[in-house]
Design a protein that fits this description.
Chain lengths: 481, 638
Amino acid sequence: MAVEQLDIHLVLMMPEILVAIMAMALLLLSAWTHKGGAGVIHWLTMMTIVAVVLVIQVGSGTATTFGGQFITDDFSRYVKVVMCLGMVLPVLMSADYIRGHGMDGGEYHVVTMFAMLGGMIMASSGGFLILYLGLELMSLSLYVLAAWRRDDRCSSEAGLKYFVLGSVASGLLLYGISMVYGVTGGTGFAEVASFLGKPEGHGSQLLALGVVMILAGMGFKIAAVPFHMWAPDVYQGAPTPVTAFMSVVPKVAAIAALFRILFDVFPTYHVQWVPILQLFAVLSMAVGAFGGLVQTNIKRLLAYSSIGHVGYMLIGLVANSQAGAQGVLVYITIYLFMTVGVFGLIIAFDRQGLGENISDYQGLARKQPVMAFVMAMFMFSMAGIPPLAGFIGKFSIFMAAVKGGFIPLAVVGVLFSAVGAFYYIRVVKVMYFDQPEGEFKVTLSGGGFIVVSLSLFMIFFWGILPGDLLAWTGASVQAFH
Amino acid sequence: MSANLLILLAPLTGALVAGLLGRRIGSGLAIAATITGMLISAWLSIRVFSVVAVGDGPVIREEIFSWIVAGNFNVHFGILIDRITAIMLIVVSGISTLIHIYSIGYMADDPDEPRFFSYLSLFTFAMLALVTSDNFLQLFFGWEGVGLASYLLIGFWYKKESACNAAIKAFLVNRVGDFGFALGIFAIFMVFGTLDYDRVFQMAGAGEFKPTVDFLFFGDVDTITLICLLLFVGAMGKSAQFLLHTWLPDAMEGPTPVSALIHAATMVTAGVFMVCRASPLFELSETALGVVTVVGAVTAVFAASVGLVQNDIKKVIAYSTCSQLGYMFFSAGVSAYAASMFHLMTHAFFKALLFLSAGAVIHAMHHEQDMRRMGGLAKKIPITYGVMMLGTLALTGFPFLAGFYSKDAILESAYAAHTGLGTFAWIMGMLAAVMTTFYSFRLVFMTFHGKPADHHAYSHAHEAPWSMRGPLLVLAVGAVFAGMIGVPLVGEGWFKGAIVLGQGHDALAHAHHVPFWVKWLPFGAFVVGVYLAWLMYVRLPTLPGIVAETFRGTHRFLVNAWYFDRLYDWMFVTMAKKIGEGLWHTGDETIIDGFGVNGAAKMCTRIAGGLRWVQSGYIYHYAFAMIVGVLVLVTVYT
C-alpha cells in the first residue's frame, strides 16, 4: 500500500495533537522547574486551552480520517469547546486551592489535560476501538485525579473506588464491543451501521446483549442509575477542583460518545435502546431527587444533583430526535456553567476554612449578602426556576420529550424536578433564614471571581435570551437524523 | 363635561378626597369636601328635575364612554334621565345632602369622621350611578356599589363585634339576591343580545325573542317570566323582602344617619326602582307580577307584625321600612308602578325623618336605644317630639300628610285591580296599615309620653345641635307636603314612556273610582291603630304585659321575628359550618395534607433514607448493584 493512499489527515486532529504535545511538554517543564514553575505551568495551561479552542474553530463540515476512525464535524467541534471550558474554568478558579492543598507541581494540570484529551478523542471517535482508547485515557487520568491528595483518606478511598468500579464498567463495555464485533465483523461505526442496515442485520439476540453491555459501560461514565453508586463517594472524596472537572468533562465526553453510538451506529435499533435509556432516565431522576434530600455535605448533594441532571439529559436522548439532541446540548452547556459556578463558590468557602457541610453556610445572607445571593441564583437555576438558564435547559428537554410523544416521561421529569427543588432551596433557606453562628469572610480569588461572575452572567443571559445558544446547538446537531 | 355627569362625579370626588386625604387635611376639610360635592350634586339634580319632571323637557340620554367591548358584548357607561330617574335623583341627592349635614352633629365625637363621610359620598355616587344607568350592567355596577357602601357603613364601628357580624350578614344575604340578579342579567343578554334598556324593552315589546328557554333542571320555562323572577330575586335581597329580609334589622348596628339614608330612604328602594324600570318586561309576565304581589303583601304584614313587639327604637323603624317596601312591591305587582314610585318618594321623606328623629332621641339619651328605658321625653326635647310626631302621622296616613296620598293610592289600586291576588294584597295592606299605626304610636308613646324610666338619662337629655335640627325640619316639611305636591305622579301618563302598562293593567286608572268606603277605610285603620296604642301604652300601661302573657306563644313568635334567623342559622350557617369542618378535617387535613402534602413529603424522606442505606460505602455493594443492574437489563431487554 502506497503512502499517498493512506487515509491520514493529521490536520483534522490538530486540537488533540496540540493538547497532547503541550501536556507532555508541561510534564517535562514541571520535572525541571519544581515548585517554582507552578505559576508558569498554570498560565501555559490556560494559553494552551485558548489556543486549542481557536484551533477547533478551524475547518468546517464533516471530515473523517484514519479510515473513518476519527471524525470531525460541527457536533464534535461544539462538544470539544464545551470540554475545554469544562477543563479550563475549574483550573482557573482553583489556582490557590491547588497551591494551598499541596497539589501544585504541574502534574495536576497535565493529568487534567490528558483526561480532557481522552474526552476529545471520544467525541471524535469513529469506531469502538478508538472510543475505548479515548475512554480509558480519560478514565485513568480521572482515577489519578480523584486520589490526588494521597495524604487524605477520603481522597485515596475515592480514587480506589472509582478505579475498581470503573474497571468493571470498562469490562462490561469491552464485552459488549466484542459481541458487536462478533455479530457484525467490524468495529468501525460506519461498518457496523452498514451491516445493520442490511436485512440480515436484524433480530440478533447477541447484538442486543452487546448493546445492553455498551450502554451499561457508558452509563457508568455518566453516573446513570443503577451505575451511579460511585458518584457520591467519589465526588465527596475527590479534591474540589477535581470534582468540578469530573462532573462536567467526562459526562460531556460520554454523552457525546452516546450520540455517536446511538445515532450513528444503532439508529435502526432504537426499539432496543430507547426503553433502556428511558429506564436509566427515570431511575436517575428519582435517585437524584430523593437521594439529595438527606444529604448534609454540599459536594455529596451536588453528586446526587448531577445524577438527576443526567436523568434529564437522557430524556433528550430518549426523544430520539433532532430537538432531543439539541436539548441535550443546551442542557449540558447550561449545566456546565451552573456546576462550575457552584464549585467556584465552594472553593471560595474552602479558602476561608469553612467546611463542606451545608450547615456551615448558616446565615450567610446576613453577613455576606452578595455571596449568598449568587449561591441562591445557582441553586434556583439548578432547580429550574425561570428566568434562570436552568429552566431553559429543562424546558428544551421536556419540549423534545413531549414532541416525541414521551409525555409520561416529561410529566415524571417535572415531578422529580419538584422533589429535587427541595434540596436546592434548602440551601437557600439555610443561608437566608438560619442564624449565623460565626463570622464569614468569604472572598473569591481573582480566577474564582472571573469564573463565578461569568457563570452567573451566563445563567442570567441564557435564561432570558437563549436564542444564540439554541442556534449554536441546533446547528451542531444537524448531522444527526 | 356634561352637567349631568357631574351629578355623579361630584359625590365621587368628595368621597375620594375625604377617603384618601382625610387624615392629612383633617376632618373639617374632609367634611367640607363631601358636603360641597353633595350640594353640587343636589343643585344639579334639582335643575335637571325641573327640566325633565316639572317642565316638559325631553328624556336625557348621554353616552359617556365605551365600557366593555368584547365580541358582540358591547356595553357603554351612559346616563338616562327620564321621569323615574328624575324622581330618584331628587330623593337620593336631596336626602343624602341633608343626611351629610345631619351627620356633622351626629358624628361629631367620632375619631373616624372623614372615613364616615367618604363612605356616605361613595354610597351616594353608587346610588346615583344605579338610578341614572341606561343599561343593566351599569345598573348592576351601582347595585353592587351601594351594597359595598352599605357593608362598609354597617360595619363602620368595626371594633364592635355585632356591627361586623351585621355587616357580613347584610353582605351575604345580598349576595344571594345578587346572584339571582346577575343570572337575570345574563339571561337578558342571552335572549336579547344586548343590555341596553331601550333595545331590550323595544324587542320585548315587539315580541322579538325566543318564547321559552331551558333553565337548569326546570326544563323549558317562559323566557320573560324567568328573567323577571331572577331580577326580582335581586330586588328581594336589596329591598329586604320576605325570606331575604333578615339582614335589614341587623343593619341597624350602623350609625343612625346610615340607617336613614341607606336602609330607609334610598338603597333599599333600589329593588322597587328596578322593578318599575323594568316594567316593560314585568308587564309581559302575569306570573312574575303575581309573585311580586304576593311577596310584597306578605312582607307588608310580616314586617308590621314583628314591628309590634320590638323594643329597640331603630328596629321598630327598620321593620316598618321593610313593611312599607312590601307596599311598594305589591303596588308594582298590580301594575300600579306610578303609585309605587310615589310611595317610594314620600316614604323617603318621612322614613328618613323618623330615623333621624330617632337618632336625635338616641343622641339625647346618650346612645340608649331601648324604648323601655325612655319615656316622657316630650317635655325635654319638644322639637324632636314635634318632628317625630309629624313623621309618624305621615307614615300612618293621617289625612293630607304625605303617606295619606301615596298609601291610599296603593291600597285603592290593589282593590281596583279586581283580581284575586289584588284583593289579597288589599286585605293584607289594610291589616298592615292597622299594625303600622299601632307600632308607630306605640313608639311615640313609649318614648315621649308616660313617666321617665331612667331618671339619670332623662335629666341629662338635651335637644340636638342645629346641624341635626335643620335637616329634621326640612324633612318634616317634606313629610307634610310631599304627598300633596306629588299627587300628579299617579295621574295618567305622567311617567310618559318610562313606565309601560300592559293591556288591561289599569288598576291605577280605576283607583279613583273605588267606592267611598274603600277610600276611607285606611283612615279607619289609622283610628283603630291609634286607639289601641293609646289604650295599651297611655291609658293602661299594664295591659301590654297581660296581653303578652296571655298570648305567650304568639308573642314569642313575633319577638323572634317568626324564627327566621334561627331557621336560617340552622339551615345554612350550621350546615355550611358542618360541611366546611368536614372538608377541613377529612378533606384537607386527612386526605390532602395527610396523604397528599405531608404524606408525599414523608414518603420522599423515607425513600431518601432507603437510598442512604443502600449507599453503604462498600465497594462490593456498589459492584453488586452494577451487576444486578446489567442482569436485569439483559433479562428484560434482550
